[in-house]
Write a structure and sequence with these properties.
This protein has 237 residues and is of the alpha/beta class. It folds into two domains: 3-79 and 156-235, Rossmann fold (3-Layer(aba) Sandwich); 89-155, no CATH class. It has helices spanning 41-49, 72-78, 95-102, 110-123, 125-129, 140-152, 170-185, 197-203, 221-225, 228-235, and strands at residues 3-12, 15-25, 30-34, 59-62, 65-66, 80-83, 158-162, 189-194, 206-211, 214-219. The strands form two sheets. The protein has a six-stranded mixed sheet, with helices on both faces. The protein has a four-stranded antiparallel sheet with strand order 2-1-4-5, covered by helices on one side.
């Protein structure tokens, strides 16, 4: 499923967080949004998810359908699912209950939810092993896996991943990004917001660089890896 942004702006009071964003992720693509903290990556996701209302004149299309004005639950039902920055788990609840909550909009389809749960446990065997433990007792890497698994329970056609590598050790980052690549190769379009440019560009089809709420660069991973400004800002020359 294709996701496209056309002239998307977003204001927080008098502050303009997004200023005329144009970007797209074609069906089956893995597209990376690079930018420093506060550049506007999360605001793009919040606008797409319906959690923040885009400014008048903005258009966010999911396939042939306009999303601006839709309620968040309607957007999830259609297959656009966000895995938020900071995981936002329920730490006192079990791993299993956190996963089940991810399927809330599909709660009437028990057979489908069980099938999806089995797929999540195949992606993350450690979650199957620890299904009855409190989410808060997991390591940081396991909690990130749980957050991604919970998002997958929403049956995404497009998955929005917001800073999944944040605070993780390099080996765990590698494991998480391998799973993200597997999810994408299985047919899910992925929009990945990241500060870890090196790891993200290694698995991306295309990437955008965002600064102060605007797209300042777009290209394939090789061209951005070789761009001196990108290397200095996000990779290290």
């Amino acid at each position: 499923m294709k996701l496209s942004f056309d002239g998307v702006s977003l204001n927080y009071g008098g502050f303009r967080a997004l200023d005329g964003i144009d970007l797209h992720a074609e069906s089956g693509e893995l597209v990376v949004l690079l930018g420093a903290n506060g550049a506007g990556k999360s605001s793009i996701f919040l606008a797409a998810s319906g959690l923040q209302r885009a400014a008048p004149g903005s258009s966010i299309r999911f396939g042939d359908e306009e999303l601006v004005g839709r309620r968040p639950a309607q957007i999830v039902e259609r297959g656009l699912v966000q895995c938020p920055e900071g995981r936002k788990l329920f730490p006192q609840m079990s791993v299993l209950k956190n996963l089940v909550l991810g399927a809330y909009v599909h709660r009437s389809d028990r057979a489908g939810n069980q099938k999806m749960l089995d797929e999540v446990f195949q992606l993350f065997p450690i979650l199957a092993e620890r299904r009855d433990l409190a989410a808060g007792s997991l390591s940081g890497g396991q909690q990130q896996m749980l957050a991604i698994g919970r998002a997958m329970m929403g049956r995404p056609k497009v998955l929005l991943l917001d800073e999944p590598s944040l605070g993780l050790a390099p080996l765990v980052v590698k494991q998480v990004f391998e799973v993200i690549q597997r999810i994408n190769r299985a047919g899910t379009t992925v929009l990945l917001a990241e500060q870890n440019a090196y790891a993200a560009l290694k698995i991306a089809h295309r990437a955008y660089v965002i600064e102060s709420g605007r797209i300042v660069l777009e290209g394939d991973p090789a061209s951005l890896m070789n761009n001196e400004a990108v290397r200095k800002a996000y990779i290290g020359a």
